[in-house]
Amino acid sequence: MKVAVAGCCHGALDKMYETLELLQRRHNVRPDLLLCCGDFQAVRNEADLRCMAVPAKYRHMQTFYRYYSGEKKAPVLTVFIGGNHEASNHLQELPYGGWVAPNIYYLGYAGVVRFRGVRIGGISGIFKSHDYRKGHFECPPYNQQTIRSAYHVRSIEVFKLKQLKRPIDIFMSHDWPRSIYHYGNKKQLLKMKSFFRQEVESNTLGSPAASELLQHLKPTYWFSAHLHVKFAAFMQHETNSKEDLPKATKFLALDKCLPRRDFLQIIDVEHDPNAGDSLEYDAEWIAVLKATNSLVNVTQSSWNMPEKNGLHAKWDYSVTEEAIKEVLEELNHDLKIPCNFTLTAACYDPSKPQKNMEPVHTINPQTTEFCAQFGLTDINDRIQQAKEEGSGRGECEEEEEEEMDSTGSAEEPSEYNTDNSGLSSFNPDEIMLDEEGGDEDLSTCSVDPSPDHPPEFSTSFSDIRIMPDSMAVSSDDAMDSNNEELEKSGGSKQVEEKSSTERSLKRIGGDENGNTGVKKIKRRNQAIYAAEDEDK
User: Fold this and answer.
1) Residue 527: its pLDDT value, please?
2) How far is Cα 322 from Cα 325, in angstroms, rounded to an integer?
3) How does pLDDT run across 10-22, given as a tens digit for each residue?
4) Parallel/antiparallel/unpaired status of strands 98-101 and 104-106
5) What is the pTM of this model?
């Protein structure tokens, strides 16, 4: 079957679906499934906009609300994960996943589903070590700290995914697995994004948690977004024994959804021709959720997952074939995910704007039904109980957010090596929420297509191509020859960097403690909310 993969959508659903329709009209290619790798921005109303971690001037309604209200319907089944620019209050309603609109499914904090026999997994958010070992304690209304920590990856989700034993076909993460750049055209990447150099050379670019999952799950495909640059890699995994068949992962990072950007990729994936066209639960994943339910935590205290270190009576939560069989029997062998989408918030009405609408903490009926069916803890219900008892820390408190570097607080230990003292004080993963001045500093650092390789469709739509079987290289020494092969197969695209006068990055100096008299602009996201007219 044909699967379309998109990078950061940023709420531009109309544009994304129009591109797919153009693909069908001009090339007679109709994807069976669309995957989106985060920053989907399922914004329903003005309250949702207030829960999105971007400066107020970039909080635009976009077009998702039309699909939420039923005015429009997604023309293709769409499955997405969360990124770091989301309506966090909306996605928080569905910690185990669910429908955010008809035909649009969110995978949850972490999740695995099946479509036509293809096993698809994903993890939402981005990695930050200072929040990694906490529980999911945040709830709206958020403060300046929790509006960000709400989308930070937690160790419990990684732990759950690591209990899986059966093969994964496709996996999605928003930020890249750390070290993946060593398995692709690193020279070309640094030519396009030269400010990645220090992090690449110190091996601190990307998520160590995602890297851990990549090595454990060894999926056939891994898709990411976040950095707004297209990049392919091919990672050959080590085998545990001579009897094991060699496994490899094809990695692809996608650009953001903007005109003339290469933000969509079409791949052919082997599927079960006898399987139905409905999105289905994954029996092993449901069994893992049941097995790990006792580990659910809604406090912001740091805690460690069980491991074989003599401190835990149980550390292996992987499930048996018998446990998987029990899940199948509970469902009468009908794994179809029910189409039980319901409205849980008022939908935006352009004729009656409500700029003062406040976000509220909502219990979604889909989550209630899912938890009741499988005997799981409703995380939001637990947070509500903690708030009512006055003992939980999910209730927001007004406090000033402390400055943290790109790997978290130095005072809090992490299981990962996060020493990047040689890097700049800029946090490359997030946008500052301070709105006082600095507008002129938000310059873009994205890369336009080369004049020698114009988009195939038009200047208004993405260049969409079929992914070749062999996508990347394993060392810098072989870059040139392998790139020639990729170009012939249509799998690579030459890009050139904008001149420094057009796309200069304005760095802001500070003292030895990193203090400055002006707002800091996060480098890597300078391209995220730049004016679209620069790309037209």
Assistant:
1) 42
2) 5
3) 999 999 999 999 9
4) antiparallel
5) 0.77
